[in-house]
Design brief:
Radius of gyration: 19 Å
Structural class: mainly alpha
Order of helices and strands: HHHHHHH
Helix content: over 70%
Number of helices: 7
Largest sheet: none
Number of strands: 0
Distance between the termini: 26 Å
């Protein structure tokens, strides 16, 4: 088992998964901003096609508004996908049986659980920053502040629903 956990191949899969997610999010982040704004802002203000809305936001608030909060999201996403792919491929390599769809599904669920348990604090900070509930100096600064004010419970708030969601989405 330890050989598969520390293998070059497992590391390559983890880095590739993390890199792919970061590139994808960086390219499409303005659409994520638009999605969040549509969910939170008044619906009268945001009428039109997605491209019209993005152009309007860029004109009204500046192009950088389309990338507000990108850095902590990319940091969290890279860690999250690294953990997921590393765990998935380590489990897959350590399996004595030949790989099957059911086995891969099981490994995917297990990797997702490990991912949620490890990275929940990062997503708690991201969510609070995105909803402008709190203004943290950085991702790590946010983790430290929540731990100081709310303890471990605050850092892992929402973990149970995340685990349930992840379990259902992978079944």
């Amino acid at each position: 088992m330890s050989r598969s956990l520390l293998s070059y191949e497992t590391l390559v899969h983890a880095v590739a998964g993390a890199t792919g997610s970061v590139v994808g999010m960086a390219v499409f982040y303005p659409l994520d901003i638009l999605r969040s704004r549509l969910q939170v802002d008044e619906s009268d203000k945001l009428k039109g096609s997605p491209w019209e809305l993005l152009l309007r936001l860029a004109n009204d608030e500046g192009v950088l508004s389309l990338y507000r909060g990108l850095t902590p999201v990319l940091q969290s996403l890279s860690v999250s996908n690294f953990v997921y792919f590393y765990t998935f491929h380590a489990l897959r390599k350590s399996s004595p049986k030949s790989n099957s769809a059911l086995q891969d599904l099981t490994f995917g669920v297990l990797a997702g659980i490990v991912n949620v348990l490890i990275t929940s604090p990062l997503w708690v900070v991201n969510t609070r920053m995105k909803l402008e509930k709190d203004n943290y100096p950085s991702l790590i600064g946010g983790v430290a502040e929540i731990f100081k004010k709310e303890g471990v419970r605050g850092l892992w708030s929402g973990t149970i629903p995340s685990l349930l969601f992840y379990g259902w989405c992978n079944c």
